[in-house]
Design a protein that fits this description.
The structure is a homodimer of 340-residue chains.
Chain A (H helix, E strand, L loop, with lengths): L1 E7 L6 E7 L6 E3 H11 L4 H11 L4 H5 L3 H13 L5 E2 L4 E2 L6 E5 L3 H10 L14 E3 L5 E2 L4 E4 L6 E2 L2 E7 L8 H4 L3 E8 L2 E2 H8 L13 E9 L9 E6 L2 E7 L7 H8 L9 E4 L20 E6 L3 E10 L25
Parallel strand pairs in A: 6-17, 8-14, 9-19
Antiparallel strand pairs in A: 1-2, 1-5, 1-14, 2-3, 3-4, 6-7, 10-13, 11-12, 11-17, 12-14, 15-16, 15-18, 18-19
Helix pairs in contact in A: 1-2, 1-4
Chain lengths: 340, 340
Amino acid sequence: MRFARQLVQTPDGPIARVIAAGNGTDTWHDVRSSVRRRARARGATTEGALRIAEALVPSSMSAALAHGELFLDAAREAADDAAEETRVDDVVLTNALDPVSYRDYMVFQEHFSFGFRWQNKPVPDVMYEFPVSYAGDPLTFLGPHDEIPWPSYTERLDYELEIGIVIGRTGTALTPDTALDHVLGLTILNDVSARDIQAREMTSGLGPSKGKHFACVAGPYITTLDEIPDDGLRMTARVNGEPWCDTSSAEMVWSVAEIVAWASQAEILRPGALLGTGTCNGGSTVEIDRRLAPGDEIELEVDKLGVLRNTLGRPGTGSWRPAARNRESNGHATTLHFLR
Amino acid sequence: MRFARQLVQTPDGPIARVIAAGNGTDTWHDVRSSVRRRARARGATTEGALRIAEALVPSSMSAALAHGELFLDAAREAADDAAEETRVDDVVLTNALDPVSYRDYMVFQEHFSFGFRWQNKPVPDVMYEFPVSYAGDPLTFLGPHDEIPWPSYTERLDYELEIGIVIGRTGTALTPDTALDHVLGLTILNDVSARDIQAREMTSGLGPSKGKHFACVAGPYITTLDEIPDDGLRMTARVNGEPWCDTSSAEMVWSVAEIVAWASQAEILRPGALLGTGTCNGGSTVEIDRRLAPGDEIELEVDKLGVLRNTLGRPGTGSWRPAARNRESNGHATTLHFLR
């Protein structure tokens, strides 16, 4: 089963509607319309059916997933019916998931081994002790077709070809045996990166922030786990139509089940939480020594998950950047501050 | 002005209500009740007044702040009236803010200098180039009186005495001159840390995750910026009543205005976003070589911001942890995975 969201125009501006792909068809169906139709058939008034449908299937995918089996049953019914009345055409997809939280791991061995060599560092032992991650900003997600902004503070914008793990059911203290029951499905993830400032930030030990938090892309849709083979998915990247990466998802030091289980220790994973695998082997420009330019078209394709296509914007101008602090001979800043 | 949230019992379980401290009083007032009362006085029916009040003043502080001046005016009116009818007594405060996003900086020089020495590293230059941060989990916030969970995977739980900066108004591409217009106010922040696993994680360069994301505490209330003097606030910590830290907020390498301005470059700061200053000088047990134990009571006090008091729970048991990967002579893992 596949989930997505499309934008529709309303008198109050565009809003997102949750849609599901019809089983055995190539059509998309509006889940809220399906719920409304079924409620009418069971005796609800026109207004009552709409109230129930609006409550059960909100615009937010995370809010819909928070309704558990109530929502999933409704989505399955919409997909099974694949009714003419709920079909939507000329679909403009927006980000399938508005995540409630986002963390990104680093589990592809060739990728992280290259990354540490690039920084003149040995691969730290922790990479083989448990899955490690940084946290991203859940509020800056883009969808298919959105232009990726180019921050004024970077000269080296990069894509990262990854797989996103979408949590569908609340879970904590999971094990690899139980973890996959809490995963709704997978989606393509482009963890956009500003390499120069990211490398600078990571010398602090706190991980990337301005190098990552300006944008992240997920989509075009979410494919449920029952459709995903365990022997891996082919992952490819094209820039302006030219192949730049061709690899497999089955090269991870830690499995999806292990990543989710570890993430859930001492934490509650919520419906709509997004976990990234980290960049696949060869899945960014750094390791193939290429450069992106404004206007470039990035296409990320993963078997079963579709194609995620975005274009890079032009560098922003004129934004503020702190002037480096003056330091005394002892290395400490000469002035200290509070509010201003 | 001070904002907080209290828990009230309903037939559907406890819910949070936004409250404001009365101007010139020591009483708390329910903002939704105040809006309802004023709407009634302007001709709304009982039901109509309730609908408007529920929409304007939701349970979520971030959702309320998303209403901009509409909400802030309502809160000001509740505080100015300090009406007997809206007064709430025997208040049990919950977390004042349910943040939409959370990032934590590291701007106190003595603290970070100690931290790098502790890891046998020199202080990296980037600490004086711009404010650096890691991103936390906005979904795991606790409030005053909540017990802090002790994850099974740590033997060294720690508090961090910090100040939280609450964004009140959407902003992007700000400068230090405009940044403070987007700050609602400040609150006390306890960025709880599991030191052993945090140190291990940070050898990956990705920053802390399991060492931080299990819990964070904010509160007990938010004090608006107009009540905060620019020459700094006294910050103290007590453990089981014994003073462990006594310092000032006016020892930051980067100011609140600079932190917010830098955070807003190429990003949109949203109402309800929370930014931490990082630990104040001497504001954790590491730098004073003390240890916490289960059941310890942590009290963090900041002038103008109140006292944030929490007790540490008992270590969890029996949770799953990955077994380290076997590595070949070339240092690479012997098995690779995908789903399972």
